[in-house]
Design goal:
With about 750 residues, the protein is mainly α. A hairpin with an 8-residue loop joins β6 and β7. The longest helix has 20 residues. The protein is globular and about 90 Å long.
């Protein structure tokens, strides 16, 4: 590391009133409808896959230890270990980008871990990722999913952390926009997402912002400066850690380190440049390619007087790009500028930088797939970007240090990046909700879609571009919901609704889509009164535009009926669904996808009203029709089979119910994995049938497996966990009574 790392719809109810959710069992997709609807799922499920809060200790390189930061480390560790005063422990390590703040924080985290302490590492580069990570910390500190859904997550997080009795450290890295740390309160007032720790805990934040107004009196500020003055020897050692021995003498390295202002990031890039230049065979080098410290210094000094440190980084970047161009990567500069135009978040480059996406990207449009990949790997080779290998649940992503991004960003590339993100968001390749890779891609695309909307000059966009962007934000909203960020989804959709109303009018079809999706989010938040009011207002507009039997009108009536059912107004919900169903049958027939959606929802309502015979007949009819239209593994068909199995169980037809649950479970395990909440729901339901059949041993196995996952991911006190435990206790009692 060498001291410079920084550079681098509704729940499906159970018979026992268990609260459930999940992509598969939460909704029947409304095929053929004009609205793009949010696919709701249990907020805990994807978040557990989407974020990691483990300190990235593997990034430490013992061969390149921290240089020149010994006193800083000693001072920080002493303050972090000291008894907290009334204000608690919150340290902010402040300094310009590239000073090595992250490397110091990682070293402290490693030492804490070696001493047996507990640690979490949270990135603060964008709001959704920050909140998701802090929710994960709260869960790991003992908060239950039910508690996390109350809306006071920030208070809950610090309450749970305060109860811990073992030493712990929370690192909040790259908090360069401290406003993100405010959350529902205020950072400087001690009521934000990040607060001083009490008890055996401590908080360390890395940030560029060292102003007292930002931090108030809640944090102790530690300024980190470049390695200048008496620490230039350490700066020179960083150069030598990365450059080859042939680059020159220690004195020459010292001279170059002084010219680079002792900035660790610039030192690492310069050393890496020299290493790469020396690896290039002489016949393939450009005549003026620097290969020694002295050569590099002369190239740097050529006409470049009075450079400050920020310009030093830009010059280092420019020289690295020039080296790539000399090697035949003629589009390296344009590609780096384009990469800098995306959001400051992991970039799913395999989805965004394909040849078909770059058709409007100027000179990059001439690159084919192999050429794009060659340029990306070349940029990574000089440390200008980092390419992370894909892991389960996470696509291949690219990272760029914020300072490199700042040095590379040009205004003209922002609209191009926004267009690429919008096109990707609306692509057909992301339609299979049962595909784990699709889910992961959506998770990585969402921050870039939201950033594109935030930075776009909406008034200057043509109508087509504006409408495409608002659609993209709508579908990104579903990812916020999937990750449990319902409040943020609401905020985003409210902003899109306001923009749509202003620029294309409140009754434009795209504005109505946003209103529809906003109402769905309100329903997921439990704001049933607001959701109902929004659907009722939307229904009035739909009726005025298209009449009672228009497809959008029927869609809204369908969702309104679902809210009525959630409110316990089963008779009203049934009446609304029956009216909508009659209109859909007249309009498109009995087996049209839209009709089947409404028939399914009506069957659910009938089931809840206790009309099992009628509900079963409808589920069987819907299932038969779906089999004519979609594959057996399709989520819509699995929903129908699952709901039919529930009715069969309630009717006492245990053998057939078991067969249906086993079929659904096998598909879900293959497509979603053993720990997805839809899989767990089916496994739990199967266990109840096994119990009722007297197969107590197998029922115990299934329930123990479900309980283990729910305890880990939801906590021991969550409603689902408690229900599973009660079911397991019942099976154990039956086994003992044999």
């Amino acid at each position: 590391m060498g001291g410079e790392q920084e550079q681098a719809g509704g729940a499906v109810g159970r018979a026992d009133n268990r609260l459930t959710g999940g992509t598969v069992h939460g909704h029947v997709v409304q095929a053929g409808r004009a609205d793009i609807t949010l696919r709701m799922s249990d907020p805990a499920a994807p978040a557990a896959v989407a974020v990691t809060v483990a300190p990235p200790l593997g990034l430490r390189d013992p061969g390149r230890p921290l240089r020149g930061r010994e006193e800083t480390l000693e001072r920080l560790e002493a303050e972090l270990a000291a008894e907290p005063g009334a204000e608690g422990r919150l340290l902010a390590l402040c300094g310009m980008g590239g000073c090595g703040k992250t490397a110091i924080a990682l070293e402290i985290a490693a030492r804490r871990s070696a001493a047996g302490g507990r640690g979490w590492w949270v990135e603060a580069r964008n709001g959704p990722a920050l909140e998701a990570a802090l929710r994960a910390v709260a869960r790991q500190a003992g908060a239950t999913q039910e508690e996390l859904e109350r809306g006071d997550t920030a208070d809950l997080l610090w309450s749970r952390l305060a109860r811990l009795d073992t030493p712990w450290l929370l690192v909040v890295d790259n908090a360069d926009d401290p406003a993100l740390l405010d959350g529902p309160g205020s950072l400087s007032a001690g009521t934000g997402w990040i607060r001083p720790a009490t008890g055996p805990g401590a908080v360390l934040v890395t940030t560029r912002d060292s102003t007292r107004a930002t931090w108030g009196q809640v944090a102790r500020l530690h300024l980190l400066r470049p390695l200048t003055g008496g620490r230039l020897d350490a700066a020179a050692r960083i150069l030598r850690d990365h450059a080859p021995a042939s680059a020159g003498t220690p004195a020459q390295a010292h001279a170059l380190a002084a010219r680079l202002g002792g900035l660790p990031l610039a030192l690492r890039l310069a050393g890496t440049y020299l290493d790469q230049a020396n690896r290039t065979p002489p016949p393939f080098r450009a005549p003026a390619t620097p290969t020694t410290y002295a050569d590099y210094l002369r190239a740097w000094e050529d006409g470049l007087d009075r450079l400050d440190q920020g310009q030093a980084l830009a010059r280092t970047w420019a020289m690295s790009v020039a080296l790539l161009e000399q090697r035949g990567h003629g589009h390296a500069r344009a590609l780096l500028e384009l990469l800098a135009a995306f959001a400051d978040a992991d970039l799913p480059y395999t989805h965004l930088l394909t040849p078909d996406r770059l058709t409007e990207a100027g000179p990059l449009a001439a690159l084919d797939g192999p050429a794009i990949w060659q340029h990306l790997t070349a940029l990574a080779g000089l440390g200008l970007v980092e390419l992370l290998e894909p892991v389960p649940g996470v696509p291949a992503v690219l990272r760029m240090h914020p300072l490199v991004r700042d040095a590379s960003r040009t205004p003209g590339t922002v609209p191009v990046a926004n267009g690429i993100v919008t096109a990707a968001a609306l692509a057909d390749e992301f339609e299979d909700a049962m595909d784990a890779e699709v889910t992961a891609a959506w998770r990585s695309l969402a921050p870039h879609i939201l950033d594109a909307f935030e930075r776009a000059d909406l008034a200057g966009l043509d109508e087509t571009t504006l409408l495409d962007l608002t659609l993209a934000v709508n579908v990104a909203g579903r990812q916020l919901v999937t990750d449990g960020l319902h409040a943020q989804a609401r905020t985003v959709l409210e902003a899109v609704r306001a923009a749509g109303s202003e620029h294309v009018g409140p009754t434009h079809p795209h504005t109505l889509i946003t209103r529809h999706n906003l109402a769905l989010v309100l329903r997921e938040l439990g704001e049933l009164v607001l959701a109902r009011a929004e659907f009722e207002a939307l229904l009035e507009v739909r009726r005025s535009l298209g009449g009672d039997t228009h497809v959008e009108t029927l869609n809204t009536r369908h969702e309104l009926a679902s809210v009525l059912r959630d409110q316990g107004e089963l008779d009203s919900a049934r009446a609304e669904l029956e009216a909508a169903l009659a209109a859909e049958r007249d309009r498109v027939g009995d087996t049209h996808p839209s009709t089947l959606v409404t028939r399914h929802e009506l069957a659910r309502t009938l089931h809840e009203q206790g009309e099992l015979v009628t509900a079963r007949a409808e589920f069987e009819a819907v299932l038969a029709a779906l089999r004519e239209q979609i594959a057996d593994h399709h989520p819509h068909l699995l929903v129908a089979r699952f709901d039919l199995a529930r009715v069969l169980r309630d009717q006492g037809e245990l053998a057939r119910a078991r067969a249906e649950f086993e079929i659904v479970l096998a598909v879900e395990r293959e497509r979603l994995g053993d720990t997805h909440f839809s899989t767990l729901l089916t496994q739990y339901s199967l266990a109840l049938v096994l119990r009722d059949q007297g197969d107590l041993t197998q029922a115990r196995v299934e329930l123990e497996a479900v309980l283990a996952v729910e305890t880990e991911r939801l906590g021991p006190d969550h409603h689902n966990t408690q229900i599973t435990r009660r079911a397991l206790d019942d099976v154990l009692r039956l086994l003992e009574g044999r």
